[in-house]
Design a protein that fits this description.
Layout: E1 5-13, H1 17-30, E2 34-40, E3 47-57, E4 68-73, H2 76-82, E5 86-94, H3 110-113, H4 119-131, H5 135-146, H6 154-168, E6 188-190, H7 192-203, E7 207-210, H8 217-225, H9 227-230, E8 233-236, H10 240-252, E9 257-261, H11 263-279, E10 283-289, H12 306-310, E11 321-322, H13 327-344, E12 347-353, H14 354-358, E13 361-363, H15 427-446, E14 452-455, E15 461-466, H16 470-482, E16 487-492, E17 494-496, H17 504-509, E18 512-517, H18 523-532, E19 538-541, H19 550-561
Parallel strand pairs: 1-4, 4-5, 7-8, 7-9, 9-10, 10-12, 11-12, 15-16, 15-18, 18-19
Antiparallel strand pairs: 1-3, 2-3, 6-13, 11-17, 14-16
Helix pairs in contact: 1-4, 1-5, 4-6, 5-6, 7-8, 7-13, 10-11, 16-19
Length: 565
């Protein structure tokens, strides 16, 4: 088939559009289709214009699409805002009781099809019928979603779904019918934050502290959901300062720990991060980016916090920063951050953003049978007695014992300290301790994940990107190939530290290089220049709160090179 369809459901918060979207998406995944979901919502409990867009295909899709093929408008505002985004053969569905201007619309009488409480189910039925999705598939998912907590709603939901399918079955539509794919593989429907929480749990995280802050909160909500099963303690602190210090205390006591926050919360954690570095206490911090400064746009997306994480903390200490571009990378890179934090006894960071956090994809089940969890205790036995927590070593890594579990006294201090952990102002010891801590950076560098390369081996145009822009950039590369333009992408999922030997030849051999990132100043392009001396003069930036699309990237490309096609 190789056909992409983009469905957008729009309405107010409280109208149940997310429920419609999630069930429709899960139905498509179970039918064997790939999906990419984009959620856009205002920072309000009720009201405001929200959308849930699901793009699907029998081929992999990993980026949003701007044109809409099926618009489910739950209110008149949705029609006003999105009617000009319709594809040439796009279909608009809007309730018959909503007063709108004349046009070619499908106007289901939701009031006749379902009680008010179940009108969103009726809208789901209309969408499912128009797309040709198996009715029983959707009905089964409805039962799963509401059956346990609200068994009394099962029959009403099924009734509304059935009547909606019957009403829509004879309606003329240019949409193709999407029956289940034969021999369809079993895939999971998962968003980035779900994958982060699963990656953390699989790596052995068993303490998580937080203060709620969009778009990171669902990471914690997911961990709460399986906390009893996995033996994870989750604690909501009174603020972000308390959250980071709780996690440090838990980690000092031997519990692999993580905090999740956004930019404003992370700013309050910076002193605690330096405390973890000085006491050599492992900790993982996940920062889900959103537009800033200050409160900014709490429910939109951006890549503006790279510099914040790169330079967070007073003084110098080694760190690694990961920026996953897919839910799969969210899982495995969170695991990697946990492993590095425990191994090198230093803070490690995962950067995501609202788009990836809320973007459901169809992914292959993770192979968890061969994954190991971390051991917070050093395998090395102390070679001197009494125990020296910060003994000088060639690697900078000192044997780590947990307080209270052996006969040894474990001392930690936020001041500069000697090998035992006692405060010192001996400047020679100070020099040795700085060098010891920084030597751990060599080990982190030896484990750098190289950037992904996708596209032509000898490109005329090379895109450089990081984090959640991966899907849109790779799609742009595929689209350029259709026009006979040789292009490729160099995508970084680890953005610090960097090993130029892994990629500098790619940059130097490409005829043209363009960076793509969701901020105003080109933070990663600047970091690349700082680390390699390579200047990327052509940069595509986006900072309106919306995710990248292939169409946006290609339009900017045409402006750079005055292309008319």
């Amino acid at each position: 088939m190789n056909l992409t369809v983009n469905v957008l459901i729009g309405g107010e918060a409280g109208q149940g559009l997310v429920t419609i979207g999630q069930i429709l998406t899960k139905s498509l995944v179970r039918s064997g289709y790939y999906v990419c979901v984009t959620q856009s919502y205002m920072s309000r409990i009720r009201g405001g214009h929200n959308t849930f867009a699901v793009r699907f295909s029998d081929q992999e899709v990993s980026a949003p699409q701007e044109e809409i093929d099926l618009l489910i408008a739950l209110n008149a505002e949705t029609l006003t805002l999105h009617k000009n985004e319709m594809s040439p053969k796009g279909i608009i569905v809007i309730d018959s009781k909503i007063q709108v201007e004349d046009g070619e619309f499908i106007r289901p009488p939701f009031k006749e099809l379902a009680a008010l409480k179940f009108e969103n189910t009726a809208a789901l039925g209309i969408a499912g019928s128009l797309l040709g999705i198996d009715e029983e598939m959707i009905a089964g998912i409805l039962d799963e979603q509401f059956g346990r907590k609200h068994p009394e709603t099962i029959e009403e939901n099924r009734k509304a779904l059935r009547k909606s399918y019957e009403w829509a079955q004879d309606k003329k539509s240019s949409l193709r019918k999407f029956a289940p794919i034969k021999g369809r593989p079993s895939r999971l429907m998962m968003d980035g934050n779900q994958a982060i929480s699963l990656g953390a749990a699989s790596a052995g995280i068993n303490f998580c502290s937080f203060y709620p802050m969009t778009p990171s909160t669902s990471i914690i909500n997911n961990m709460i959901a399986f906390s009893k099963t996995m033996g994870i303690v989750v604690e909501q602190a009174e603020d972000e300062i308390a959250a980071i210090n709780m996690a440090i205390g838990a980690s000092y006591a031997g519990a692999p720990s993580m905090v999740a926050t956004s930019g404003g919360g992370f700013a309050l954690m910076v002193e605690g991060i330096s405390l973890a570095a000085m006491t050599e206490t492992p900790i993982v911090v996940v920062l889900a980016q959103r537009p800033a400064p200050a409160t900014g746009l709490p429910t939109r997306t951006e890549q503006g916090d790279l510099n914040l994480v790169l330079y967070a903390g007073h003084g110098e200490f080694p760190r690694a920063i990961f920026a996953p571009g897919t839910p799969e990378e969210c899982f495995y890179l969170t695991r990697k951050a946990v492993e590095l934090a425990q191994k090198y006894q230093s803070p490690m960071f995962v950067l995501t953003d609202q788009f990836l956090a809320d973007s459901y994809r169809a992914i292959e089940p993770f192979d968890v049978d061969n994954l190991n969890s971390v051991n917070p205790v050093s395998n090395s036995e102390p070679n001197t007695m009494p125990y020296k927590r910060y003994v000088i070593t060639e690697t900078g890594i000192s044997p780590r014992l947990l307080p209270g579990l052996t006969k040894n006294l474990v001392v930690a201090d936020s001041d500069e300290h000697d090998e035992f952990g006692h405060i010192t102002e001996d400047l020679a010891i100070r020099k040795s301790m700085v060098e010891k801590r920084m030597r751990k950076g060599k080990g982190i560098i030896s484990e750098i994940i190289p950037p992904d390369y996708f596209g032509d081996d000898n490109p005329d145009l090379l895109f450089v990107s990081w984090g959640s822009t991966k899907g849109a950039v790779n799609e742009a590369v595929r689209n350029l190939a259709n026009y006979g333009i040789r292009s490729a992408s160099l995508h970084f999922s680890q953005i610090f530290p960097l090993n130029p030997s892994q990629f500098i030849a790619r940059l130097e051999n490409a005829k043209n290089v363009i960076s793509v990132e969701g901020n105003f100043t080109g933070q990663f392009a600047n970091l690349l220049r700082q680390q390699t001396g390579f200047l990327i003069s052509k940069q595509i930036h986006k900072y309106d709160g919306l995710p990248f699309t292939s169409k946006f990237i290609l339009q900017k490309y045409k402006e750079f090179f005055n292309e008319n096609s």
